[in-house]
């Protein structure tokens, strides 16, 4: 993952591309990770009006897919204003005006960010973990933020390229228990070997 400053640059480029050709750009982790998340929610019979938060929504494509699958109470946050601009454009193109999008730093969430029954993270925890500036403290703050925005007994679905199941269990041991591990392909990012994806579902205690 690129360091923080280049995220904005990456989204700036995607924003430009979207304006030029109407293409939403890179989908981190690919299509199959979105399908995996939606299948799990459906299998779990999560009510379609449950409040869902996409942490680090990027181009917002996961929210679009959730909306197409019938979910109606969707919020996406990203600390990159360019990412939120991009996801707003994607939202408009798809005619999904009821998806809520906000510029938010998840490590310092605003008060109105609360009461979610489902939180989803594809790669944001990874990116925070790689921050050279106090990564351990930032990971602990991430877990605190998650506890504050997710309702008791709510579900947290995380897809990670950097952490094994055991490491994630350790990171989220305060306040969360694992429900299940979701099956994932063994490679990610252009099939770079040995870079497996871990997808876990936690429940807030």
Automatic annotation (TrEMBL):
Coiled coil: none annotated. It catalyses: L-lysyl-[protein] + 3 S-adenosyl-L-methionine = N(6),N(6),N(6)-trimethyl-L-lysyl-[protein] + 3 S-adenosyl-L-homocysteine + 3 H(+). Residues 50-180 form the Methyltransferase domain. GO terms for biological process: methylation. One of its GO terms (molecular function) is protein-lysine N-methyltransferase activity. Gene3D superfamilies: Vaccinia Virus protein VP39. Keywords: Cytoplasm, Methyltransferase, Nucleus, S-adenosyl-L-methionine, Transferase. InterPro entries: Efm4/METTL10 (IPR026635), Methyltranfer_dom (IPR025714), SAM-dependent_MTases_sf (IPR029063). One of its GO terms (cellular component) is cytoplasm. The keyword Cell membrane does not apply. This is EFMT2 methyltransferase. It comes from Haliaeetus albicilla (White-tailed sea-eagle).
